[in-house]
Amino acid sequence: MVGRVVAIAGLVASSALLTSHRADATVVVKQKGVAIFTVDLGSAQKTLSQAALTYTYVKSLGANAVALNFPFQISGFDTNDPSAIPGITPSATLLGQLVALAKQDHLMVALRPLLAENTLGKHWRGQLAPTNITTWFTNYAAFLHPYLVMAKAQAANSFYISNEFDSLVSEYPTKWVSFVKQARTIYKGTIYSSTPHSKFIPVSSAAAAYDDYDSVFVPDSATVATLTTGLETDLSHDRIPGKLSNLVLSEVGIAGAHGAYVIPYNFGLGPTVIRPIQTNWFTAMCNLYFADHLAGIYFWMLNLATFSPTEDDSASPTNWVATPSEAAIKTCFARTA
Fold it and tell me: For the segment 288-306, what is each residue's pLDDT rounded down to a tens digit?
């Protein structure tokens, strides 16, 4: 996850989707979405104006959903103090306005608090080791509480209670069950827990989501068919709990650069852009989404702070606006099977 750690650290310096809250509930709406890295731009007017431009673009892709990824912080990998980042983390009030705006645009909304990793040293969010887990959960609950209240008030479709917290989920499973139960006293929509590519570690009381950065050990010249087969094999080995038809691919991304199929989570690859690597990966992931009848797919990502309708990411290995990878996303969203 090192490359993606660097990428996110740089960024930081309607109705429920399921018929019940159980992880094996029956999906009634497929999510075809785009992840948006969402920060406070200094004023509500500026943030909302930028969101309106971004949502319009997302809809032009054929998406019906957005995942608003909003950062928070902790002072170190072994500390107990998760909290908002002053001047960067959007307040619950501002984020609620962004949710309402998306709903007006007929977009489903997933809320994903995402721990920034620039204070974790050589560690990533999957390696947290707080010295007092009770204090950590108390502070995390205090941080999330206003956002859960807002999610209920704005009828956000889903809320991600845990995002890539591998060490915490594996070491404290009963605490997470209790934490989800507590969250459900506030918010009645779908609560997800997402896990990264390295090992699927579920929160048993939450719906399953997967940041799919599975390695496929093939050369840059691999065909879409070969990539699709590799991804399907990887997913079958990941021991996803419950029905695959309830699984959401909460992050799908890769750098269009040499060697990326082996380490798709490394967004620091490049600088030479090999766009077909990204385009073919997106197409193969879309094939996986349809072949396994998954509940949703979210392509990573647009940056709310910098997005422009005239953006051209041709020179960027990781971003994809106005590139053939954008066309692959459009094709994916237009598919029905």
Answer: 999 999 999 999 999 999 9
